[in-house]
Each structure stands twice: as C-alpha cells, then as structure tokens.
Amino acid sequence: MSDSHTAVMSARWPSNRLTERLGLRFPIVQAPMASATTPQLAAAVSNAGALGSLGLAFHSAFAVRADCRTLREATNGSYNINFFVHREPEQDAVRDESMRTALAPFYQELGLGEVPLAQASAPPFNAEHLEAVLEMAPAVVSFHFGLPSESLFRPLRDRGIFTMSSATNVAEARALESRGVDAIIAQGFEAGGHRGTFAEPYAAGEIGTLSLVPQVVDAVSIPVIAAGGIADGRGIAAALALGAEGVQLGTAFLTCPESAVPPVYRDALNRSAADDAQITRAFSGRPARGLQNRFTREMRDLEDAVPDFPILNTLTGPLRKASSQEGNTDFMSLWAGQSASLSRNLPAAKLLEQLVKETEQTLRQLISGEARGQAESPPSI
C-alpha cells in the first residue's frame, strides 16, 4: 500500500461527510437490531460520539414514540431508528398448515399447547409509523428491504431527516441513490440477522463485504457505510481502505450489557466460531444469518416451504420465547454475523473506545509500514 493511499485513507478518519452531517465524533454506527437493541444501548453509543440505533421493525407507532422519548431523555446526540419495508405477505393455507404440523412436536415438548394460527404480524413501515417519526424527529431514519413508497418517504426528506437503507449489490445501491437516500449501508454476506436484499434474484446479493464495498463506492456518489463481519479496529480500517466513509457493527454490540439479549445468547456468541453462523429461513421466512442450533438443523429440509415473512414469526415466536426463558438455545433465533467470536463483553462506551483505539493504531501502523499480527486481545471471558 502506497504512502499516498494510506494518507488518504487516514484522512477519512474520523471526520468525513457522515460525521459532519450528523455531528458525530466517529463514523461508527451501532446496527439497529430489532428485539436486541434498547434505548440504553443506543444512548450509550450516541453519548460516546458514534451513532446509536434502535431497531423498531416490530414496534407499533405508540411503542416507537415511547422508545424515542426514552432515548432522547438519555442523549443529546444523533440517533437512528430503523424500520422494515417488506412486501405484504400472502397467506398460503397449505404452507401454513404444513408448518403448524411440523412445529407441533416442538410445542408439545415445551408444554406450549397448540400451535397458533398462522397470521400476518408486524406490518411494514406505514402512515402511522411516519406520523410518529415526524413527531419524534430523529436525526436518522434507516430502512431494511428497500425503501417505502414515495408518499411515505418524501415527508422524511422534506423534513430534513437523514435517510439510509441497506444494499447487498450494486444494482440495489444505485436504485436507493436514485430514490434520494443520503447514505447506503453496503451489507456484505458476512452480516448477521436478516439479509437486506430486496431485488431479485436473491443470489445476486450474496457478495462479501470486501468485494461489495468498493463496487458500491464506485457506483454511487453518496456516503457508503460498510457492514458485515466488522468487529474490531482492523475491520474498520479495512473498510476505510475500501472507500467507505463509515462502518456499521451489529454482532459486536450484542454482548454489551445494555443490549436486550439474554445471558444464554451472549454465552453462545462467546463460544461461537465463524462457520457456526449460517443463513436460515426457518424462524421468520426470510433469509437471516444466525448461529446454528437444534431448530435450524431439524428444519433445514423444510425451509423452502415456510410461510411468507413475517407470518412465520407468529408460529415460531412462542418457541423462541419459551426456549429463552428456560435458558436453552435450542429454539432461539441467535442472529449473529461471521465475526461473532470477536465479541468482547464490554459496556458499549468502553467497546467504542476500544474500537477507536484499534482503528487509529491500525492506521498508524499501515502508514508507517509496520506489520501487525492481530488486534489487542479482548478481555478474558
């Protein structure tokens, strides 16, 4: 790597278009992981100078207001709230009943009674959500699975709210830019949780972060935020080298005490290896990366016949909840990326401090030509 290139890369850290627009000290985004993020986690990240986020995909408009108020009381910094914009599901009686039959033995094993009827839940971003967002006026609103209709999206832009959405290939990134988003989250295949792919074919989004980010950077003119498999300062420095102006980390924040994940989930992350994190449709009906467990293994042959997202959540939700309450990971959706084993178990502010320190150290070593074998060892677990 030439001295001029490393100098340019270092110049992107920590100030750039993203930090200047949002008033951040560091271009690091804590990913908005639905059901795992809390106002406390987002506030800790925002107060430390990065962008805290809330995953509100399964929230009612009332709950959106409540969490935003709690977060605003805890920080004066910018924060991001995220919504899903999935297509409305189609009910399929054959698939619904077939899945209920397949899940019945698990329900019996956990003493949960009959499997509930399959029904749609968690609507995509809608007019009620929009009203709540405009009232709460967060600095950032982000979306997953594309963007909402223009009638729902334009009011956000007119209000001056910074918008972002996930892209898993160049075509998606260009489509998002043409709609007027302010930044693109380039979600590499290593990322944990639901894949943000929204254009067919799905396989076109199976691109690793190292390949995806520079292609998206070259294809669009707006800031690109790299996501997927980034868990320490080495990954952040690499994303800068690829042309990203920010990074988004999700799994790295799951083991923070401020997150909502139960202890048994944290323990599973700490024990995990890269090949433990596999793509599955068995929990929600959409492809998502998580740690393998008994449920994903036993459902593997049925994944092509599951009900549409998010109908399947209605059927698997009671299993996930009961398994978590028993301290058993067999039926939990353990969303995680391929770098889960790099988790640190640090409070969010301490984790951010460590990430910044590692990034700056890595950049210094690259510029000076020093070799580095590994990031500072994480604290003992």
Question: What's the quick description here?
Answer:
With 381 residues, this protein is an alpha/beta fold.
Please render the helix and strand layout as text.
Blueprint: H1 3-11, H2 17-22, E1 28-30, H3 39-47, E2 52-55, H4 61-74, E3 79-84, H5 93-109, H6 127-136, E4 140-144, H7 150-158, E5 162-167, H8 170-179, E6 183-187, E7 193-194, H9 209-219, E8 224-227, H10 233-241, E9 246-249, H11 251-254, H12 263-271, E10 277-280, E11 288-291, H13 294-298, H14 311-325, H15 348-368
Parallel strand pairs: 1-9, 2-3, 3-4, 4-5, 5-6, 6-8, 8-9
Antiparallel strand pairs: 7-11, 10-11
Describe the structure.
Helices cover 41% and strands 12% of the residues. It is built from 15 helices and eleven strands. The strands form two sheets. An eight-stranded parallel sheet has the order 1-9-8-6-5-4-3-2. Strand 5 (162-167), helix 8 (170-179) and strand 6 form a beta-alpha-beta unit. The two termini are 36 Å apart.
